[in-house]
Amino acid sequence: DKIHYADITISAVSPSQYPDDGIPEIVLAGRSNVGKSSFINTMVNRKNLARTSGKPGKTRTLNFFNIENELFFVDVPGYGYAQVSNAEQEKWGVMMNEYFATREELVLGVLLVDFRHEPTNLDIQMYEFFKYFNIPVLVVATKSDKIKKSKHNKHTSMIKKALKLESEDTFYPFSSVTKEGRKEIWNEILAYTRN
Ligand code: GDP
Fold it and tell me: Domain named EngB-type G: which ranges (predicted)?
């Protein structure tokens, strides 16, 4: 449960810069502000490993976080900023395709969505993008502390239905405030990386 070592290894803009350790990778995707940085920090018990709420559109890199020399969290730039140009979006797409199409180390996709809301079209596209590349998906529904327990089932169904979540994929509510889901998500991740 305790994480002793977690550090950013590289912010890569091209495949030649990806790490060559051969250790498994978990890619993390979600729209900007969904709580992805908070998720990373909570999972590894760090306050500031991933920067929370940095400038939108600024990070156009894949950030590889080495966790215990056992796996990488690969943080991809958040999507869905209004102010990002078509050229920027195009670059994002190229970078994502390069990574997803060729990366053998990639064992699991984590898609972060906001537990409070219907997934956006971009969330659905991201889910389909994972499925297109045959990557199993773990959906993390963030900010669960903002939803009453009595409404959890309703929101869970809403999100699974909108994404058309397949049976091999998994879903967990998560909160970086209460740490709900942290343990279950670690178990799920380790089931993929330790195989
Ligand atoms: P990112 O842009 O996806 O990296 O999102 P951040 O991690 O920076 O979070 C965006 C905002 O949501 C910040 O104001 C966080 O404090 C807040 N936030 C993130 N996770 C949670 C959570 O689990 N519960 C609550 N209540 N707020 C959260």
Answer: 22-195
Percentage of the chain exceeding pLDDT 70? 94
- pLDDT recorded at residue 175: 98
pTM (predicted TM-score): 0.94
User: Considering the domain boundaries, does residue 1 fall inside one?
Assistant: no
Cβ–ligand 1 distance for 78 under 6 Å, the answer: yes
* Residue segments in the chain with a per-residue pLDDT below the cut of 70: 1, 52-59, 81-83
101 is a domain residue: yes
The region that residue 76 occupies, defined by phi over 0 for left and psi between -120 and 50 for alpha, beta otherwise, is beta
Domain count, the chain: 1
Q: Does the residue 120 lie in any domain?
A: yes
In three-state secondary structure terms, 97 is: helix
State CA 62 to chain mean position distance: 12
CATH code for the domain of 139: 3.40.50.300
- To test the pocket of ligand 1, the residue of 39, 52, 55, 79 to mutate (highest count of ligand atoms within 8 Å of its CB) is 52
Number of residues that this document lists for the chain: 195
ipTM higher than the 0.90 cut: yes
Ligand 1, atom 27: closest residue by C-alpha:
143
Q: What per-residue confidence (pLDDT) applies to 145?
A: 98
Domain that holds residue 148: 6-193
Torsion of CA 107, 112, 113, 116, to 10 degrees: 130
